Amino acid sequence: MSYKRLFEQWNGFSEMEVAWKENLQLLATDEKLMEDAFHRDLEFGTGGMRGEIGAGTNRMNTYTIRKATTGLASYIKAAGMNATERGVVIAYDSRRYSPEFAREAANTLASNGIKAYLYSEPRTTPQLSYSVRKLNAFMGIVITASHNPPEYNGYKVYGEDGAQLNLEAADAVIRYVQEAGDALQIQQCPIDENLVIYLDEKIDRAYIEELKTVQENPTIAPQTNLKVVFTPLHGASGKTVKRILNEVGYEHILYVEEQMAPNGDFPTVKSPNPEEQSAFEYAIQYGEKYDADILIAADPDGDRVGVAVKTNEGFKLLTGNQTGAILIEYLLTQRKDKGEMPANGRVFKTIVTSDLGRVIAEYHGASTEDVLTGFKFIGEKIKQYEQTKEYEFLFGYEESYGYLLKSFARDKDAIQSVLAIAEAAAYYKEKEMTLVDVLHVLYERHGYYLEGLVSVTKKGVSGANAIKNLLEQVRINQLSEIAGIAVLSQEDYLTSLRTFTDGRKSEQMLLPKSNVLKYFLADGSWVCVRPSGTEPKIKYYFGVTSGSETESVDKLEMVKNAFTDEMNKYLKD
User: Fold this and answer.
1) Active site includes 146?
2) Rounded distance, CA 492 to CA 61, Å?
3) In this structure, are residues 350 and 357 in contact, taking their beta carbons and an 8 Å threshold?
4) Do 224 and 426 form a contact (C-beta atoms < 8 A)?
5) How does DSSP classify residue 513?
6) Which of 94, 98, 111, 146 is catalytic?
7) Is the confidence at residue 243, as pLDDT, over 80?
8) Whole-angstrom Cα distance, residue 451 to residue 320?
9) Using H for helix, E for strand and C for coil, what is the string for 406-428?
10) pTM recorded for the entire structure
11) Measured between alpha carbons, how far is 91 from 141 in angstroms, rounded to an integer?
12) In sequence order, what DSSP letters do the residues of 348-397 get, joined into one string?
């Protein structure tokens, strides 16, 4: 059916809710917007769905939520009575329509005879992950669009282990969602209100107690004079962070009051993304006024954090790779000092995350394993090794500011990270070192590892085609060099093949298939290209290493510019 016919169908729907009816009136005056809203169904992918809020099949609204949850309900019912009785935990962040979408999901499940545990206030994604495990639920849903702009929302699905669905389960759910039919025609059955259970303080208290186990040295918090500024950027984590830091004994924590209350409009930030310097504008003002040592910002659903450190030149924002390296150094040093370092300890990172973490882990006697981009693959490995006992989980992280220290949650956890970062900063402050000083010690010991990222946004139908074309062309026109540096090997995660330029036989890779290419260069540098799974973007990742900071900075800029220029040849609408 054409997008115009679908628009007419929605516009003529007699039961259309007021908010979406008003949005349809806007679409009627802008054919380009109308096409984008109706040219396809909002994709329910391996991590759920994410999109702009509004009327249309390609938008986040009551009807697309109902359709997705109807498909999920069919998947649960197919798993049997035990699955329906164990039910689904639902949480949501501070975004526009998040409470309404969460309630719609709960009602849809209940109308299908499935128990729904529903938070009545915003809670973080990692608390949702923990709650699924704590309540022995069969699945979990969190309504969030992470750090996307205010006009977005999303719907993420979790399995019974508390991790986002693995690829096999996700594919099965996707099939059921596709079979759910026309979103406007899905009728709610009478709802048994006994099947919708609101979660209370008990689950909050249990999560807080688990968070306390993240501390390597609980005596540090009540003794330190470390000054920390924290902001949840109008998201869901503020209440929980304030509570846990108070309970473990930190006394010099300053909260950015203008940003503590949940607010889906994110009125004081250009973007609620802790990867960006602009997100720290208010925190920096607090830090300068109160002479803080570190600033910490969490994203709206409380799974990622950014850190800024006081230096003589002002506050320096650490990258996700740098924070991860510091946490690995602190964690493994503490474990060794206490005699608690397991012989089979393993650190997990994604294929686009810095190799600095790997060499630090190896220095301390731990191994490292790479997984595809996406924290669900780390969660999958935790479950695997819990069963086989082959390795013991030590730490998991990704370059996009997500970290996990304890596996009671199975997704990146900003609250765990705040505790660990504050403790590490306090520990090193006692040694008259900042976190930046620690980073330079690591560089001197292991080499200057620097990373970069280029994201190119390509919206709409033409943008999706441009990204598809780029990946097709770069596979056809294989690269032999980047910035004059020879390519030694290429990993194609779609074909699962590792190929070499020196004539060696290709090797099969064991990771799941994904539309990603990674190049390894003769000087130890690497480049990776992948489409975003949640936004209309193509992303280029870069990693370099050398014996000096200047050399690494120059090399990174050279490789980044050369590769981006090469990709621009193919990236045409």
Assistant:
1) yes
2) 36
3) no
4) yes
5) P
6) 146
7) yes
8) 10
9) CCCCCCCCHHHHHHHHHHHHHHH
10) 0.94
11) 6
12) EEETTS-SHHHHHHHHTT-EEEEE-SSHHHHHHHHHHHHHH-SSEEEEEE
Torsion angle, CA of 515/521/525/531, rounded to 10 degrees? -10
Token look-up 């992280």 returns: 397
- Write the pLDDT tens digit of every residue in 436-450: 999 999 999 999 999
Band the pLDDT of 573: cuts 50, 70, 90: low
Q: How far is the C-alpha of 65 from the C-alpha of 112, rounded, in Å?
A: 15
Residue corresponding to tokens 């493994």? 332
Render pLDDT for 191-238 as a digit per residue (tens, 0 to 9): 788 999 999 899 999 999 999 999 999 999 999 999 999 999 999 999
**267-274 long-range contacts, CB within 8 A, separation 24+:** 267/234, 268/234, 269/233, 269/234, 271/147, 271/149, 272/147, 272/233, 272/234, 272/235, 272/299, 272/300, 273/147, 273/299, 274/147, 274/233, 274/298, 274/299, 274/304, 274/305, 274/306, 274/401
Residue with tokens 């819990």: 386
d(CA 160, CA 134): 10
Domains of the chain as residue ranges with CATH? 3-200 (3.40.120.10), 222-446 (3.40.120.10), 448-568 (3.30.310.50)
